[in-house]
Backbone:
């Protein structure tokens, strides 16, 4: 009975303020979609950077003075000791030549001695944002002749990532605040329409949490509706947009995350935000009535 | 029971001393009229009892709760020992008579079974049997005030406080309502009634507390409402 009463009250209020309820859900949907879009964009850029990190190996060439393989291998420990180095793999001049010959025409190599190739290390980094620093550190090691790294790519992607991260953080904070404000004001309308009832409830000794509950239920229902609609809309939009992108830019390094890989996370985050906005919107709306 | 000791209430917003140096005791089971001219502080005294305002200084104890220091979270518990009646009835317009009374039980979490037996009993007690399905707008003023009294009574409070309950009623309905409150008092509930209607007070032989300009100017048992 009590639970039935509370839920009925929550819904009654939503239908009496139909337009405002609709507007609130619409604003929450819009806010969540914007948040979701920037977050998904940021996730995709991150994934691309990860790809780049995997592809973008730094090659450290060993100085000819260490032509003996064992002496060259000794450098491994020095390289591993450098900050930001994730993995180091030794490639002997013989292996380098074989790999070169398998990629190109073996006839080019006729009569060429493997002495032309240097021993080398293939190095992967933890974070390509610090690639230039790491390159300098590697070059400083005694016995390293040369370091090959592709800095340009890395730099621009990292810049984009940082910008998107900052923008999405600011947007998310702002939009959560906007949703909360709109939610709270809609529910305030409901509390205003029922102020006499609230006053009577207080007079006969209803507890504050009891008085608050229908409004929290109202907020929850509005929030969850918004969250569900926003989830479905994000799903559709994402597939539409990524379909276009992948379709138009062929053969690039753009590797889009499929929606199903992030669907659960998106759903959970949307629900968490909309439930929080609903509950706190309801609590905030009724706050002033519960003081006396 | 109400105990007030040297109570002073100042409204900061209007810089008004609404009550000053009020000391009184109302024992369990008493019937008390609180009289005085408009603006003398009667409603303020009632609000001190219901916990809507707190005393600026002095002590107010109501049904064993110290109203000066009571925690906000304990107010509901305190208010369940009181039944409150106002001049303007304060019924919920879109609920029928039965639901207006049952509402007071629902919001304090009374089981349905108990509500179904208690509400008809109380409605009969206040003389509203057969009116259960009426909406407040379909009732006379006297009947609406009876609904309000039924609502105040339904949770079995220790004390009923009524602020000018007959203010909107004609003399005959006023007398009937006062007789109802007397009957409720005889059944064991303490009753405090605010009024400024002299004839009504003098038709009964009850304790009369008089206040004027925020100060107590009289307290007589089996008293009358004298012109001041
Ligand atoms: N909420 C309030 N804020 C400021 N002043 C008030 C408030 N309520 C009452 N007063 C003032 O306190 C005095 C006593 O008012 P009240 O207790 O309502 O008197 P009564 O009920 O006897 O007519 C009046 O002068 C009134 O203007
Ligand atoms: Mg008054």
Residues:
């Amino acid at each position: 009975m009590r639970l039935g009463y509370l839920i009925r009250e929550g819904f009654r209020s939503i239908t009496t303020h139909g337009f405002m309820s609709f507007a609130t859900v619409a604003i929450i949907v819009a806010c969540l979609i914007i948040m979701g879009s920037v977050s998904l964009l940021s996730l995709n850029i991150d994934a691309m950077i990860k790809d780049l990190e995997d592809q973008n190996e730094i090659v450290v060439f060993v100085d000819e003075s260490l032509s003996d393989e064992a002496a060259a291998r000794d450098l491994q420990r020095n390289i591993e000791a450098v900050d930001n180095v994730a993995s180091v793999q030794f490639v002997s001049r013989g292996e380098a030549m074989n790999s070169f010959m398998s990629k190109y025409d073996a006839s080019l190599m006729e009569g060429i001695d493997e002495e032309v190739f240097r021993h080398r290390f293939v190095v992967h980094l933890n974070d390509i944002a610090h690639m230039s620093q790491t390159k300098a550190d590697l070059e400083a090691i005694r016995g390293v002749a040369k370091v090959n790294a592709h800095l340009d790519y890395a730099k621009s992607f990292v810049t984009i990532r940082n910008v998107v991260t900052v923008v999405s953080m600011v947007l998310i904070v702002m939009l959560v605040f906007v949703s909360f404000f709109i939610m709270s004001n809609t529910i305030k309308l409901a509390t205003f329409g029922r102020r006499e009832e609230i006053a009577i409830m207080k007079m006969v000794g209803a507890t504050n949490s009891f008085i608050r509950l229908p409004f929290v239920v109202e907020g929850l229902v509005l929030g969850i509706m918004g969250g569900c609609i926003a989830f479905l809309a994000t799903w559709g939009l994402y597939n539409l947009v990524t379909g276009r992108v992948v379709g138009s830019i062929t053969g690039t390094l753009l590797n889009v995350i499929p929606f199903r890989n992030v669907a659960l996370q998106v759903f959970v985050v949307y629900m968490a935000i909309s439930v929080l906005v609903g509950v706190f919107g309801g609590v905030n709306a009724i706050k002033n009535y519960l003081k006396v | 029971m109400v105990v007030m000791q040297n109570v002073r209430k100042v409204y900061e917003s209007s810089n008004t001393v609404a009550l000053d140096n009020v000391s009184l005791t109302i024992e369990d089971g008493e019937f008390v009229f609180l009289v005085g001219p408009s603006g003398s502080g009667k409603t303020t005294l009632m609000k001190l009892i219901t916990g809507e305002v707190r005393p600026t200084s002095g002590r107010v104890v109501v049904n064993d709760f110290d109203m000066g220091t009571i925690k906000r979270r304990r107010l509901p518990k305190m208010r369940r020992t009181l039944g409150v009646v106002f001049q303007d009835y304060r019924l919920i317009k879109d609920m029928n008579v039965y639901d207006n009374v049952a509402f007071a039980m629902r919001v304090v979490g009374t089981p349905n079974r108990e509500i179904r037996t208690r509400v008809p009993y109380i409605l009969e007690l206040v003389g509203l049997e057969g009116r259960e399905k009426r909406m407040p707008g379909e009732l006379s003023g006297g009947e609406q005030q009876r609904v309000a009294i039924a609502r105040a009574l339904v949770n079995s409070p220790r004390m009923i406080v009524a602020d000018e309950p007959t203010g909107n009623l004609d003399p005959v309905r006023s007398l009937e309502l006062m007789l109802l409150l007397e009957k409720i008092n005889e059944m064991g509930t303490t009753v405090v009634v605010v009024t400024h209607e002299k004839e009504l007070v003098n038709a009964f032989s009850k304790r009369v507390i008089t206040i004027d300009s925020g100060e107590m100017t009289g307290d007589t048992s089996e008293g009358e409402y004298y012109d001041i």
Summary: The interface with chain B takes residues 1-2, 5, 196-197, 199-208, 210-211, 291-292 of chain A (CB under 8 Å). Chain A has a mean pLDDT of 83. The longest helix of chain A spans residues 151-193.
